[in-house]
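Sample log: Enoyl-[acyl-carrier-protein] reductase [NADH].
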Amino acid sequence: MANNLLKGKKGIIFGALDEKSIAWKVAVRAKEEGAEFVLTNAPIAMRMGEINKLAEQCNAQIIPADATSVEDLENLFTKAQEILGGKIDFILHSIGSSPNIRKGKSYGDLNYDWFQKTLDISGLSFHKVMHVAEKQDALNEWGSVVALSYIAAQRVFPDYTDMSHAKALLESIARNYGYRLGRMKKVRVNTISQSPTKTTAGTGVGGFDAFYDYADKMSPLGNASAEDCANYTISLFSDLTRMVTMQNLMHDGGFSSMGISEDIVDMISK
């Protein structure tokens, strides 16, 4: 149900690949809630995905940008403001990639050049996005910046390897830039630590099905879906959460507060 929560707001959504993507769901919900926005992704991801279909559905323009390139981001923010006719009210950073995971490298055998790419794509790009937004004074007061994280930033999930460090970096950047942008423009910056979700990127992690089933059995509410995450993200873009900033917000059906559940005990006992 739409409530015009984002009526009149303008945004940039990074990372929509296909209909399974959380960013895709956020875009659809943002449109329903009255927002205008541009879509962006790296050129290679755009070739692999279906972003043109989403753009047509949401009446949104696409601006290709590699989020690791400051030059690309400068072009993105300049063009986004021209297209939208003003400054930006919300940004979704839904970007993550690990060459080591994609190529099956174990944690003890990481390729360090690929490790640096993981950190740049999945973590440092968040800093670059806000750096460019700050330099261009592209954000409206009381704007909202959200990035998607995962609990592997705090806990060990062996097959998540170097992405766990990228998510920890992402959350640290949110706190530090949240302070800076809060003082400067009353802009809030948060991360959402989402349940394991059956996206194209998520299912590429080794052992994902075990992650997913374990979290579902541990969580009293079960795993949060991509649609659930989109709804939560919309609430953070809205004026209803104006005083929430510098937080890593657990959106996981209660998983992060659990020690063990009856379902897991029963499974082990059998």
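Observation: Residues 10-269 form a domain with the Rossmann fold fold (CATH 3.40.50.720).
Observation: DSSP finds ten helices and six strands in the chain.
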